[in-house]
Design a protein that fits this description.
four-stranded antiparallel β-sheet, Aspartate Aminotransferase, domain 1, alpha+beta, 11% strand
């Protein structure tokens, strides 16, 4: 039989409102796929154990994450990954429960992770500790031009953290049409001028 840890209940309870349903659903799916899983709290975040560390989840101020300990050895680990490639976890940043892939995919991944632990397969050290090169953030010309026309917005954007800047850049560059891009650009300048992060709607209101 599996084992739930009351500390995980408290972790979820203290998470921002947007993260609660995400963490709760992930927890439910993991226990369903691996009835013998046991919970723990490692590095301050909920961790699921099955013959060793199997996977874990965490909630931050603006997003949540979920990932497998041996993700580098798993198949299709990036199939449902969000666009933010540098986020922890192999699903990228999760802002809403709708960002989660189908349960069938998660169950399949949990089963694969279980098998890796059952067979005691280790992650090679050169893979585990290989540092990922950081790619400089390139601000598209359309955003640069729009910011140059609004001094306040430009000052706020320049003061943003790299992650906040990247969220806006990705939102604009991923637009499928010029019309969508222009609409997002207009909205972005308005939000930036107000000092809002791209995903401010998911941030806890003070």
């Amino acid at each position: 039989m599996g084992k739930k840890d009351p500390r995980v209940d408290q972790y979820i309870k203290k998470a921002n409102d947007f993260a609660k349903p995400i963490l709760t659903h992930i927890r439910k799916v993991v226990h369903s796929a691996c009835p013998e899983v046991e919970e723990d709290l490692k590095w301050g975040s909920p961790t699921f154990m099955y013959k060793g560390i199997m996977c874990g989840m965490a909630a931050f101020k603006e997003h949540a994450v979920f990932g497998f300990w041996k993700a580098s050895l798993m198949k299709n680990k990036d199939k449902f990954r969000q666009s933010n490639k540098d986020a922890m976890g192999h699903l990228g940043r999760l802002y809403d429960i709708k960002n989660l892939p189908p349960d069938s995919y998660l169950v399949k991944q949990v089963k694969e992770a279980m098998k890796l632990n059952e067979e005691n397969i280790k992650v090679p050290k050169e893979v585990r500790f290989k540092a990922k090169p950081k790619t400089p953030l390139v601000v598209p010309a359309v955003l640069k031009t729009a910011l140059s026309k609004n001094k306040k917005a430009k000052a706020v954007f320049d003061a943003f953290s790299p992650s906040h800047k990247k969220e806006y850049v990705e939102w604009i560059t991923e637009a499928k049409t010029d019309a969508t891009r222009d609409k997002r650009l207009e909205q972005a300048i308005e939000w930036i001028e107000e000092g809002k992060a791209r995903n401010w709607k998911y941030m806890r209101k003070k």
